[in-house]
Amino acid sequence: MRIIIYTGKGGVGKTSMAAATACRIAESGKRVLVMSTDQAHSLGDSFDIKLGKNPKKIMDGLDAMEIDTVYESEKSWGNVKKYFKDFLTAKGGSGIEVEELLVFPGLEELFSMFKILDVYESGEYDTIIVDCAPTGETLSLLKYPERLSGLIEKVLPVKRKGIKKFGPIVEKISKIPMPEDNVFDDFEYLMDKMQRLQKLMLNKDIVSLRVVTTPEKIVISEAKRNFTCLYLYHYNVDAIIVNHIYPDKAMEGYFSKWIRLQEEGLKEIEECFSEVPRFYVELQDTELRTLDILQKMGTVIFGDTDPDQVLFKKEIYIPDRDESSLKIYLPFAEKDEMNLEQIGGELVVGVRNESRRFPIPSEFAEKEISGARFEEGYLNISFE
Length: 384
What we know:
The protein is an alpha/beta fold. The protein has helices spanning about 15-25, 45, 70-90, 95-100, 105-120, 135-140, 145-175, 180-200, 215-230, 260-270, 290-300; strands at about 1-10, 30-35, 55-60, 60-65, 125-130, 205-215, 235-245, 280, 315-320, 325-330, 340-345, 345-350, 355-360, 370-375, 380-384. Helix content is about 40%, strand content about 25%.
């Protein structure tokens, strides 16, 4: 099975590119599901058909769906949410403010991505195409298992035993409800599912991310930041789709000043993403909606290339055991934006406001960082 995820800044045409890709792959005879995890769904608008939380047939071999984030949220953590609500209202009345406190930023988007895992594990389709939320915001939420792994492995079992032993006494004295077993079960299930999803997303033979951009300076800058963030978290970006390219004929007259700006943008994309396959899509003379148009667009985008293949793969984390060093690929990062720490058997690498933990190879476990330098997109770390 293949999973292809489209991400990029809002308004660059991710949904249209995802839908056209799904049509192209379905025409090759494969069973394809295209789904939207973005709360502001527009996938149904692209096909000019009403979609819901269950797959709906679009054409032979192609189904589509728009994930219901509220439904997926309740399904994923109903008991945990109920306990938090009981806890918050134990000494006071319930109200709308309690419901608002239980809306954690990004959590509904994360639960919507669980649907990717569900469909993958069901084996019903050959390919899943995902129209993701803008700029990979949802993907950054997959940091949670990495950060909470200690809680699951060490703290949670102790807390569970402690609640069983002392919970009734504490509840009687404090009048605050203690969590039941089903709360711990839900939380462990939730974390296990996040870890399985993260493991799947990091499988470069199955999952590819494709960044959609336009040849405008602001959008290109966002695409580069997105690209760096995705590599920091070890995801595989196998293509760049450059959308909304104005044909030369359309740039005559009033828009003539945009010719130079577009040329500069296209040159920057070519230089910055020189290793990654790039696909250029001219602005069409009609809206990219309805099945017929999207089917044609699949060929316009990819030509003779098979979009179902992994188009590019790069090693991100490279240990050099002879030289006692390792390299981490962080394209477009700036030296003054980076932070590096060694905590136990892990490296903590920060770029801007994002950070990631990398395991230190066992050969270097007893050594300390002796130096680091950043060159040609690689952070080179030495140990002694």
